[in-house]
């Protein structure tokens, strides 16, 4: 499963990737908006938006560029616990 995370804390980027790896997922993490981000997102199976710690521009860009087949999960919390919960539900389906 491929996962793209938009938002979160920059200092936790490595932890986000490690948690995804533990769940058997390939991941890309964009903690803040970067030019050309839309082109680097690709076609993930799951898009996670940590809405509390990201700009509206990044959210809008991410949601518009992913295919309709991609599951999008919105989470206000960007904690490790929140990511574990999201991935547990997504990988057990």
The low-pLDDT segments are none
Secondary-structure element string: EHEHEHEH
Task: Report the β-strand fraction as a percent range.
Answer: 15-25%
Query: Helicity range of the residues?
Result: 25-40%
Secondary-structure-based class equals alpha/beta
Shape: globular
Average per-residue pLDDT, rounded, comes to 92
Number of strands: 4
From the alpha-carbon coordinates, what is the Rg to the nearest angstrom?
A: 12 Å
Main beta sheet strand tally, sense and closure = 4 strands, parallel
Report how far the terminal alpha carbons are from each other.
12 Å
Which strands sit side by side, in order, in the main sheet?
Answer: 2-1-3-4
Helical element count? 4
Task: Itemize the secondary structure elements and their pairings.
Layout: E1 2-7, H1 13-22, E2 26-30, H2 37-41, E3 46-50, H3 56-65, E4 71-75, H4 80-91
Parallel strand pairs: 1-2, 1-3, 3-4
Helix pairs in contact: 1-4
Q: Brief overview, please?
A:
The chain is α/β, with parallel strands linked by helices. The chain has helices spanning 13-22, 37-41, 56-65, 80-91, and strands at 2-7, 26-30, 46-50, 71-75.
Search tags:
4 strands, 4 helices, 93 residues, alpha/beta
Describe this structure in words.
The protein is α/β, with parallel strands linked by helices and 93 residues long. It is 40% helix and 23% strand. The chain has a 4-stranded parallel sheet, sandwiched between helices. Helix 1 packs parallel to helix 4 (80-91). It is globular.
């Amino acid at each position: 499963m491929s996962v793209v995370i938009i938002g979160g804390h920059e200092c936790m980027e490595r932890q986000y990737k490690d948690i995804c790896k533990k769940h058997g997922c390939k991941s890309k993490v964009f903690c803040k908006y970067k030019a050309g981000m839309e082109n680097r997102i690709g076609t993930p199976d799951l898009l996670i938006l940590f809405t509390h710690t990201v700009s509206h521009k990044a959210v809008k860009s991410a949601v518009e560029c992913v295919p309709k087949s991609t599951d999008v999960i919105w989470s206000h919390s960007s904690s490790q616990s929140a990511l574990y919960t999201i991935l547990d539900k997504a990988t057990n389906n």
